[in-house]
Design brief:
CATH topology of the largest domain: TIM Barrel
Shape: globular
Number of helices: 13
Order of helices and strands: EEEHHHHEEHEHEHEHEHEHEHHEEEHE
Strand order of the largest sheet: 5-6-7-8-9-10-11
Distance between the termini: 15 Å
Radius of gyration: 20 Å
CATH class of the largest domain: Alpha Beta
Bound molecules: 2-succinylbenzoate, magnesium ion
Helix content: 25-40%
Strand content: 15-25%
Oligomer: single chain
């Protein structure tokens, strides 16, 4: 297998509604799409989940473009490979920049599965015909707005509700949600908004029977998470802290978390995602697939990954229509009673919608 041409596209899509986390709000989603073509004109597709600005991690669309153009593409263009696992091996000398690596690597996985004529899920070793999904709800203007949204998503059948929290929008909000929805599977995501000194506040969340609290403390601090996890009953789930198999191993050995959120971009691709999945399975740590407000291309990769057997908790991969008026794939991702049917066609199993891709492309460049 060989990639003989790469097309990078700078995309800009407006979400149906703004998304607010403890870091801030945005509605226009700018990201990079990567198309990897082989000598027969077959294309594999990847999406970088780096945002326009470096608030989730240090990467941005522009740093990704730079890493791809100046290092990753020159390293991999026309390189003969027998398996997509070789992509991360080849790129291992480049420090971090995991989202840029994952954009290329995940496109190669799609290309590989298309060439073999098998679904990406099967190429990864996944099984099962459908996956369970939940939904992530950003910080709202009022608690009533939040309760109305939860009501809507519960009615649609989503399997768990994730509520973003930050100082000033936490214990009282979760209390009200719990009061209105005593049974709903519920969790909170802090996106690193707290410090260990906030432990008394975080302890108060123990009374609400949350499935977990996601990334309460700093992204580079698995030590304090270990201290916190010993003091609270609610399981800690790490998101921003886990960049690799090694991070996952150390977090587990320190007792910094009981659950791990795997994001393909954050860990540098599908090969590393699968290694982390396997490690967690051996160590009895359940995992679920996080989301980064992806277009259909990234969404399709998430669906395929989620078919691995230790993805035992609902992920954040909601329906295309929850984010977009028009998505980049055909058919779009649909959710029926909280379940997504895993596509059976080769590769991602969804076709890129070239008209939609054109509509949302700001600029593009081809490398061969
Ligand atoms: O922390 O999981 C997160 C969105 C952007 C950045 C970080 C996160 C999120 C979400 C939304 O929670 C997930 C999604 O709906 O794709
Ligand atoms: Mg998170």
């Amino acid at each position: 297998m060989k990639v003989t041409e790469v097309v990078l596209r700078h995309m800009k899509m407006r979400m149906k509604s703004p998304f607010t986390t403890s870091f801030g709000t945005f509605q226009d989603k700018e990201f990079l799409l990567l198309e990897a073509k082989d000598e027969n004109g077959v294309s594999g597709w990847g999406e970088s989940v780096a945002f326009h600005s470096p608030w989730y991690n240090e990467e941005t669309l522009k740093t990704n473009w730079h890493m791809l153009e100046d290092f990753i593409i020159p390293n991999l263009l026309n390189k003969e490979m027998s398996h997509p696992d070789e992509v991360s091996e080849t790129l291992s000398y480049i420090r971090k920049n995991n989202m840029a690596k994952a954009a290329f690597e995940s496109a190669v996985w799609d290309l590989y599965a298309r060439q073999k004529g098998i679904p990406l899920a099967a190429a990864l070793g996944g099984t099962g015909s459908e996956i369970e999904v939940g939904i992530s709800i950003g910080i709202q203007n009022t608690v009533v707005d939040l309760l109305n949204l939860i009501d809507e998503y519960v009615t649609e059948g989503y399997k768990r509700m994730k509520v973003k929290i930050k100082p000033g929008w936490d214990v009282d909000v979760i209390r009200k949600v719990r009061k209105h929805f005593p049974e709903v599977p519920l969790m909170a995501d802090a996106n690193s908004a707290y410090r260990l000194k906030d432990i008394d506040l975080l302890k108060q969340l123990d009374q609400f029977n949350l499935m977990m609290i996601e990334q309460p403390l700093a992204s580079d601090d698995i030590i304090d998470h270990a201290v916190l996890q010993k003091e609270i009953k609610t399981p800690v789930c790490l998101d921003e802290s886990i960049h690799s198999y090694e991070d996952a191993r150390k977090a587990i050995e320190l007792g910094a978390c009981k659950i791990i959120n795997i994001k393909i971009g954050r860990v540098g691709g599908l090969t590393e995602s699968r290694r982390i999945h396997d490690l967690c399975q051996e160590r009895g740590i359940p995992v679920w697939c996080g989301g980064m407000l992806e277009s259909g291309i990234g969404r399709a990769h998430n669906i395929a990954l989620t078919t691995l057997s230790n993805f035992v908790m609902p992920g954040d991969t909601a329906a295309s229509s929850r984010y977009w008026d028009r998505d980049l794939i055909q058919p779009e991702v649909t959710v029926d009673n909280g379940m997504i049917k895993v596509p059976e066609k080769p590769g991602l199993g969804y076709e890129p919608n070239m008209e939609a891709i054109k509509q949302f492309t700001v600029s593009e460049k081809s490398y061969s």
